[in-house]
């Protein structure tokens, strides 16, 4: 969690199954100027349970931003994106697909499902940190996000 600045804490919902990528993304966000918390789940089933506040996630905060990997176990990220954007209670939450896939079909399909942006993860550590920092700067500092 970043330093308290008096603002409402933002919730970044990271849906990622790769432990190394989770650690790197959390590390990249560590020096944020925006007060935030990162909540992570590692599969699509848990992602939807969290977003719908079901079971163990009954008291889960509504995320301000979703970082979604496409290649997830149990329920694919493409299915998760389709469910989010079809749900009137969830569809306004910005979703950034952050994935290793450069497949044109994945890119087109994600935008057809109304993803807010599609970013390919870099395997270069410095580039990945720069990508995550630019996501944070834009989505948590620059844009006006909808309230619940």
From TrEMBL:
Short name of one Pfam family: Response_reg
Residue runs in coiled coils: none
CDD domains the UniProt entry points to: REC_Rcp-like
Protein name as catalogued: Response regulator receiver protein
Keywords: Phosphoprotein
Domain Response regulatory residue range list: 11-136
Matches recorded under InterPro entries: CheY-like_superfamily, Sig_transdc_resp-reg_receiver, TCS_response_regulator
SUPFAM superfamilies: CheY-like
Modified residues (4-aspartylphosphate): 69
